[in-house]
Every structure is written in C-alpha cells, then in structure tokens.
Design a protein that fits this description.
Largest sheet: 8 strands, antiparallel
Structural class: mainly beta
Helix content: under 10%
Strand content: over 45%
Number of helices: 1
Order of helices and strands: EEEHEEEEEEEEEEEEEEEE
C-alpha cells in the first residue's frame, strides 16, 4: 500500500476552504523486472536475455504462424477457428496475464511458439500458475495442463514436459525414440516407460519442492551437457533444481514452446476423473536466454 492525498475545497457558510484528505492506494503488483539473469542465480553467468514474450505477445501464439488456423493441443482438440476459445489476455489481481482456460469436457486452451528454440544450450523461463481445487484428501491440480517443449519430428526429436498435471498431481517427463518412449518422475510401471527420473513422485497430493496448484511459480529449463557429454535439461522450480533429464536419449534438437490445458480428451478421458475440473493456466511471461 502507498499513501496519497486527495485535495479539493469545501464551502461552509459561503466561505470556501481548501481540504486535503489522506488516502491509501494499493501498490500494483508487477512481474519481476526484465534483465539478463534467469531466476536460478546459479545460472546467472553467461546467459543473456534474448527474447521476452509478455501476455499480448503470447496471445498471438494461439494461431499457427502467418495464419488464422488455431494451434491444436496434444489430445487433438482444436480451438474454434473463427474465435479461438479460452485464450485471453486478462488480469489476475493487478497482474496482466495470458490465461488458458477450460470449462467443459473436450475443451481446451492452448498456445505454441511460432518457431523452435535451441535445446542444446540456453535457458527458457516462465512465471506461471496452474489452477487447482480442494478435494477430500487435499489440494489437487484441476484438469490436464502443461508447460512443455517438443521437436518438429515427434517423438524422434524429443518432448520435455517441464510441468504436466494429471490425476491431480504433476510430473516431469521426457518423450523420445521412433515410438513414444518415456522417462518420467511418475511412480507407475507401464510398457513405454523406460527411465525412472528422480525425484520419483509418490506423493498422493502435490507437495513441495514439486510445483503446487494455485501458486505463481518460476519454471526454468536450463540446457547443456552432463559429465558424460550427453545433452541434458535441468528443471528448476522457484530457483531450486527439481529434476535433471540426461542421457543418450536426450536429443538436443530445437523445440517449440507450448502451454495448454484441457480435459475429457480421448487420451485421458474418464480416467482423469475426478480431476477433470474447470481450470486454467496463467502466464506472466516467457523468456528465452542464450
């Protein structure tokens, strides 16, 4: 809050008097200032801010480049080509945000960058909030939502799910191979899962240091190579390293940046219940560093 004063005059018995009334105004909340340093301070050296995409910039990402054809989410649910639904620039308190919403089954809100970005090196950062709901056992993520990147030749060129909410929780995953093969933090066993990423997420509800519902979170993807010379991606939440994806399966290929939310899709369908709740993803910005 900040102090201010409203000045004017009052008339009493035909005599005018100057009047000044103190008032308290809310201080607008704004995103952290632009700069050349990504959120995890350990990454500060050697990274220069190349691009910053604010809500109005991200709003254009609802269409395929140079067209009025809406982008499509991973479940194959397309936006309305006449007026892409559930993608809007709005406010959250005093913040300007891009909001991706979902209100009913087989609905979605989705954006995707018009071009690819290097994943052999560099840093991608967003300040994002995924909505949740109160269940009988705790505070869960609503619907199926994500902040992720993928290569033009999928799955050969990889897919990095820095945040993927499903079944009320959130996982980090990497998809690769000539068929969809998975390295993931999820705790389950299935045929396409070949690598158990750490930390193995066995929590029944979202808990820190994992990303939490209804909380603004810095999500940072830092690309490079590990000690064996394999490409890797370090994923940070609020400046703390949460998960490292590294190995010969990590391609280092350029990828699109995308975010979205949906439920009731053919992929998850009724298996997502009771987490198929209306919800949203909100982004304050996406930043690309060298």
């Amino acid at each position: 809050m900040t102090a201010a004063a409203v000045s004017g005059s009052a008339t009493v018995g035909g005599v005018s008097f100057p009047v000044s009334v103190p008032i308290t105004l809310p201080v607008p909340v704004t995103p952290p200032p632009s700069g050349t340093v990504p959120y995890p301070h350990a990454l500060a050296a050697g990274h220069t801010l190349l691009n910053q995409y604010l809500p109005a910039d991200l709003y254009a990402w609802r269409y395929m480049p140079g067209t009025t054809t809406p982008v499509t989410n991973g479940s194959g649910v397309s936006e309305n080509p006449n007026s892409p639904r559930n993608v809007s620039v709005t406010t959250d308190g005093a913040l300007s945000v891009l909001q991706l919403g979902v209100t009913s089954a087989s609905d979605c809100g989705i954006i995707q960058s018009p071009g690819t970005y290097p994943t052999a090196s560099g840093v991608i950062e967003t300040l994002v909030k995924f909505s949740g709901f109160a269940g009988s056992a705790g505070h869960f993520f609503a619907n199926w939502a994500s902040f992720w990147m993928y290569g033009a030749n999928w799955p050969n060129q990889g897919e990095i799910d820095a945040v993927e909410t499903s079944y009320g929780n959130s996982q980090v995953s990497y998809h690769y191979g000539t068929t969809d093969t998975v390295a993931t933090t999820d705790p389950w066993t299935y045929a396409t899962k070949k690598v158990q990423l750490q930390p193995k997420n066995t929590s029944p509800v979202p808990t820190a240091p994992n990303i939490l519902p209804d909380a603004w979170t810095y999500v940072t993807l830092a690309f490079g190579k590990d000690a064996s010379g394999n490409y890797k991606c370090d994923i940070y939440y609020n400046g703390t390293l949460y998960c490292t994806i590294a190995g010969p399966y990590v391609t280092g290929a350029p990828m699109y940046i995308t975010a979205g939310t949906g439920f009731g899709s053919p992929v998850l369908g009724s298996n997502q219940a009771p987490y198929d709740q209306p919800g949203s993803v909100e982004l304050q910005y996406v930043r690309v560093f060298s």
